[in-house]
Amino acid sequence: MNARTKTASPKAPDPGSDHWLVRPATIRLLWIIFSVMLALSVLADFFVEHHPKFGIDGTFGFAAWYGLVTCIAMVLFAKLLGIFLKREDTYYDD
Amino acid sequence: MTIEAIPPALYIFLAGMLMPFFRGSWRLLPVLLAPALLLALIWTAAPGDQLTLQALGMEIIPYRITTAGRLFATVFAIMLATGGIFALKTANTAELAAATIYGGAAIGATLSGDLISLFVYWEIMAVASTMVLWAAGTEKAWRASFRYALVHFMGGVILMAGITGHILETGSAEFTAMQADSIARWLILIGFLINAGAPPFSAWLPDAYPEASPSGTVFLSAFTTKTAVFVLLMGFPGESMLIWIGLYMVFYGIIYALLENDMRRILAYSIINQVGFMVTGIGIGTEMALNGAAAHAFAHIIYKGLLLMSAGVVLHRTGMRKCTDLGGLFRTMPVTTILGIIGALAISAFPFTSGFVTKSMISQAAADQGLAWAWFLLAAASAGVFLHAGIKFPWFVFFQKDSGLRPKDAPAEMKTAMYIFAFLCIAIGIYPAPLYAALPFSADYVPYTASHLVFQFQLLLFAGLAFFLMLPLMKRTLTITLDFDWFYRRFMTALAREFSLRGGLIRQRSIDAAMKRLYRFQATLERTHGPQGIIARTWPIGSTVLWVALLLGIYVLVYYL
């Protein structure tokens, strides 16, 4: 089980010393790429013909706004439910 | 056509029973040969082939080939072999033997032609899966296994009652499509649904599965719920109530997974979410929907196995399972990270993965039937899958923060198993034709249209945006979320404790009262019969003579009157 070959140095003040993937520059680049992809996916609606069945699923960028809104709603609902149903994870240990 | 054959599930049972005689890498022999033999047998037989026996005055069909049954048996065999490779070095003999018999029973159930054979395999599954849990050898697994067995044996009793009633009503034990139109068939449906993880009995799954060993959870994730999907598909296609049960399961899985901290419990909730999609498809009941449910079950077993394998590797290497303890593992576990992400993309139905070509059939069927509510909810749920499993699992385990853990990457045999499943996830996504050809109905579904691709990219990318926007709200806490199992783990035990407390008090009081009465009686006895008592006193001879004379005198007097 004990396979921790080496533990990370707790002090890593120099951002350049960490893995390239977690450097702030990389993360900024990833956000830029992600934003471009988001924009492209919505812009693609200009060129693609959808076959809406129920009306509002034919609105511009439907899947984009619907996905965003429903996901935010699900997270908020989970948060709300958590207020009532969350317990310490030792709750059942006795 | 009636054939003479041994039900092929028995070969798998044999492999499981012989497992203790194989050591080390030799265990590959039964692990690979038995599923290979099974695949050869079921793919050389034709749909409709069956073995018929006369027993209990009824026709028993312990082996029947149907297109759907063969599809499920095939993916179960693939799971057994690949899971066996994954478990080869780490699982103990008991686990591997129990898992093999468990998988064999699931295969037997999918190849059953009558309800009695189905029930026998069903119960073997319950026992063998409980033993897979035991093999983990921890106190928590032991306790969870009892709660697990409790629910499944209760489900088994309900199912048996239903089957008995159904046979009495129809005079036949044959397993065919039914409708929930009598108490007996309702009981059958309830028995099936309990194993599918339907409400209110969903909690057994996230309660028990994550307590198994790293490989045990992989096996458990595949068989019980998907066998339930199979029997619902064969037994109750088009039962419209299943649409709503399925949709409830879909969102239950998402919401509970969003609140969860334990990586394997996140994936366990997501099993219920995925089974919810299949149950919804079965409820819609058109050929497209049933094809979608069957295909999705096939794809699901593979990508869920892959996800739980990557989680299993993390658990095996670090001994940790909570998101709050994990993070940043991609540095030293690149292979596990990438393969886990492939599984996460497949479960999210990302284009060019298996989920994309299977789940969409269910949504398409909902649209074709004009089921607006179902379609909108399924679309939201597809986004939600990416949220709770597609991003949340890899993000919190492999990225998130630097936990300081630097575990080694997966051992060779675990890597091999994950490569096989990752390959299948992508292969099915890119080239779905062979899977479509094996579906119960002829499928003329085209997943790769520009409209579908754009729709899915938009949905998933913006779900991803939602995840990172809401990240502050997703901060993991050391918590669990109460579920229906609270009723039998807390409420009922509290009730039982209260009952035994009060019952004990009443018992003590009645004992006290009885003892008091007994003492009083004893005191009375002592007063009359004791050494000083009037009865037991020694009488002087003179007074005796006096008494005798007196009695005689009274006698003489009475005689002369």
List the helices and strands and how they pair.
The complex is a heterodimer of chains A (94) and B (561).
Chain A: H1 24-43, H2 62-85, E1 86-88
Chain B: H1 9-18, H2 28-44, E1 50-55, E2 58-64, H3 67-87, H4 93-110, H5 115-134, H6 139-170, H7 183-196, H8 204-208, H9 214-235, H10 241-259, H11 263-284, H12 287-318, H13 334-347, H14 354-368, H15 372-398, H16 412-430, H17 433-437, H18 450-469, E3 479-481, H19 485-529, H20 541-560
Antiparallel strand pairs in B: 1-2
Number of strands of chain B: 3
Walk across the major sheet of chain B and give the strand order. Answer: 1-2
> The biggest beta sheet of chain A, please?
none
Radius of gyration of chain B: 32 Å
**Coarse structural class of chain B:** mainly alpha
Q: Roughly what percent helix of chain B?
A: over 70%
Shape of chain A: flat
Oligomer: heterodimer
- Any low-confidence stretches of chain B, pLDDT <50, length ≥5? none
What is the count of DSSP helices of chain A, taking H or I runs of 4+ residues?
2
The biggest beta sheet of chain B reads: 2 strands, antiparallel
Task: Provide keyphrases for this structure.
heterodimer; A: 94 residues; mainly alpha; 2 helices; 47% helix; flat; disordered N terminus; B: mainly alpha; two-stranded antiparallel ribbon; 20 helices; 3% strand
In short:
The complex is a heterodimer of chains A (94) and B (561). With 94 residues, chain A is mainly alpha-helical.
Task: Give an overview of the whole structure.
The complex is a heterodimer of chains A (94) and B (561). The two termini of chain A are 26 Å apart. Chain A has helices spanning 24-43, 62-85, and one strand spanning 86-88. Chain A has a domain at 20-47 and 57-84. The model of chain A is unreliable at 1-13 (pLDDT under 50). Chain A contains two helices and one strand; from the N terminus they run ααβ. Chain A is flat. By secondary structure, chain A is mostly helical. With 561 residues, chain B is mostly helical. Among the domains of chain B are: 237-483, no CATH class; 489-560, no CATH class. Chain B is 71% helix and 3% strand. Chain B has helices spanning 9-18, 28-44, 67-87, 93-110, 115-134, 139-170, 183-196, 204-208, 214-235, 241-259, 263-284, 287-318, 334-347, 354-368, 372-398, 412-430, 433-437, 450-469, 485-529, 541-560; strands at residues 50-55, 58-64, 479-481. In chain B, strands 1-2 form a two-stranded antiparallel ribbon. In chain B, strand 1 (50-55) and strand 2 form a beta hairpin. In chain B, helix 3 runs antiparallel to helix 4 (93-110). Chain B is elongated and about 130 Å long. In chain B, 56% of the residues are buried. The model of chain B has no long low-confidence stretch (mean pLDDT 92). Chains A and B meet through helix 1, helix 2 and strand 1 of A and helix 10, helix 12, helix 15, helix 18 and strand 3 of B. Strand 1 of chain A pairs antiparallel with strand 3 of chain B, so a sheet runs across the interface.
